[in-house]
Design brief:
The protein is α+β, with helices and mostly antiparallel strands and 380 residues long. It is built from twelve helices and ten strands. The chain has a single domain, classed as Roll (Thiol Ester Dehydrase, Chain A).
Length: 380
């Protein structure tokens, strides 16, 4: 579907909305970054998100845990398939990831092969303060080991009129830190607490308990490169030569060509993914500067939770809302509190934890709610 050259200034048209809603139930061809939770792929992903929990990285440590060996971080799912789904999108529509909800059935163990299947689960209308009428498309990606479902990701993509690109965010230069500010960041990183083998029993968890901070940043090109080594972006993230070949497969409708995003995304020049590295491309897309990926932000929130809960707890779910961009030079302080305790029929004693990421300017950029199943000293 080709849209008129002159875009309306009040958002998407009825035709646009109907066209995007027609994608509900549509399955996508996905191209996986990893197929196996190998020693290398787990390590590269953990390093890429800055998470040095020995449960992911050390064979000798992990053998002494209840798992009997290494497991992958919960959000390793993103390294299998990025779960970005924006199908049936007309030309001239901008897509922006605004959050995700993840459900974890069990950890992925070292050596397991994982397969992903993706489809559009829902499309709902929304009204943006700056971008006018738009829709939120929910793409669901299921991850399976053999025939067993081990996790599900529902990434939320907002579709808005590309006319609003330049109106989304004002350009912003990377933050310049004082020596004292840099020292605060360094000390915060070094002070990170990993609960590990110290079981956090449900009986000792109370509403209002503080979840210790993790510090992420300042974001830079090397951090993005490390993340891409562990969990590349969309299937279009390739070297020039392989990208050209893939573009040809997309143009000719080859059955192996990825379809989880609109063809326009894969064929665009300059490639939209450069916005995560290049200031000119980022600002042309309406971002303040080169920025992180939504999946990265989700992984950072999960990192804070797994540090707090320890090896004997299970992360059951995580719902993340991305509120503001995180550009090169930004630092995020992520922490939270326990907001609810309850008993779940399937998982026993559980805690709900609410998290927030705040940058060096005092702006809340991300919020999350996680549910953790805790060990109990006395189970009835």
């Amino acid at each position: 579907m080709t849209r008129p050259a002159t875009f309306p200034t009040k958002g998407l048209s009825d035709e646009d909305v109907a066209h995007i809603k027609g994608s509900i139930g549509m399955a996508a061809v996905v191209v996986q970054w990893n197929e196996e939770a190998s020693s290398d792929s787990i390590r590269h992903y953990a390093w890429g998100i800055g998470d040095e929990n020995p449960l992911w990285l050390s064979d000798s440590y992990a053998r002494m845990t209840r798992f009997g060996g290494r497991v992958a971080p919960p959000t390793f799912l993103y390294s299998i398939c990025d779960a970005e789904v924006a199908m049936g999108i007309p030309e001239g529509i901008q897509t922006i990831q605004v959050g995700a909800t993840l459900e974890f059935r069990r950890p992925i163990r070292l050596g397991e092969r994982v397969w992903a299947r993706t489809f559009v689960e829902d499309v709902r209308e929304r009204q943006g303060r700056r971008s006018g009428r738009g829709v939120e498309q929910v793409g669901r990606t299921d991850y399976l080991v053999g025939g067993e479902l081990v996790g599900t990701v529902r990434n939320r993509m907002v579709c808005v009129d590309a006319w609003f690109r330049g109106k989304l965010h004002e350009p912003r230069q990377p933050h310049v830190y004082t020596a004292d500010e840099r020292e605060r960041i360094r000390r915060g990183i070094l002070a990170e607490e990993i609960r590990g083998k110290g079981t956090r029993f449900a009986e000792f968890v109370s509403v209002g308990d503080v979840v210790p901070e993790v510090v992420k940043g300042p974001l830079d090109l090397l951090t993005m490169t490390a993340y891409y080594a562990g969990a590349i972006g969309t299937a279009a993230y390739r070297g020039v030569e392989t990208r050209v070949r893939q573009q040809e497969r997309i143009k000719t409708g080859h059955p192996s060509a990825p379809t989880n995003l609109a063809a326009e995304h894969f064929l665009a020049e300059p490639f939209p993914g450069l916005g995560h590295q290049d200031a000119t491309v980022a600002r042309a897309m309406g971002m303040p500067g080169p920025y992180d990926t939504g999946n990265q932000r989700v992984a950072w929130m999960a990192h804070c939770l797994t540090n707090w809960m320890g090896d004997d707890a299970d992360l059951l779910s995580l719902a993340v809302s991305i509120k503001q961009p995180n550009i090169f030079g930004d630092t995020q302080w992520i922490g939270g509190t326990v907001t609810r305790r309850f008993i779940d029929k399937a998982h026993g004693a559980c805690a709900e934890v609410t998290l927030s990421a705040v940058n060096q300017l005092g702006v809340e950029t991300t919020t999350a709610v996680g549910v953790v199943s805790l060990a109990q000293m006395c189970s009835s």
